[in-house]
Amino acid sequence: MTSQDAPPRRRPPVGLQTRGKAFWRASVADFDFSTAETALLEEACRCLDRLDLLAATIAQLGAMVTGSQGQPVVNPALTEARGQ
């Protein structure tokens, strides 16, 4: 068996948070992933967790924040969330 054919990990990777773990568990319960697909799944789970963190930041600070010159600017967390 080559490393590409190795069975994926069934347990969530260390460091995943609530939504990332839930998505991991639901995904591995329903599908068999190759090694490459498992790596992509892990990144998708981490992305979900980052989106939750960014959403919490946006909820706390709002869509607009104060810029360096005291002007209102779009919260950088919105830009980062869009990038995710």
Topology, pairings included?
Elements: H1 18-30, H2 35-61, E1 64-66, E2 72-74, H3 76-83
Can you walk me through this structure?
It is a single chain. The protein has helices at 18-30, 35-61, 76-83; strands at residues 64-66, 72-74. It is mainly α and 84 residues long. The chain has a two-stranded antiparallel ribbon. The relative contact order is 0.14. The model has no long low-confidence stretch (mean pLDDT 91).
Short synopsis of the structure:
The chain is built from three helices and two strands, in the order H-H-E-E-H.
Give the uncertain stretches in residue-range form. none
Strand content: 5-15%
Shape: elongated
- Give the N-terminus to C-terminus distance in angstroms: 34 Å
> For the report, how would you describe the main beta sheet?
2 strands, antiparallel
Number of strands: 2
The neighbouring-strand order within the major sheet is 1-2
Mean of all residue-level pLDDT scores = 91
What sequence of helices (H) and strands (E) makes up the elements? HHEEH
What is the CA-atom radius of gyration, in angstroms? 17 Å
Q: How helix-rich are the residues, as a percent range?
A: 55-70%
How many helices? The count is: 3
Q: Give the structural class.
A: mainly alpha
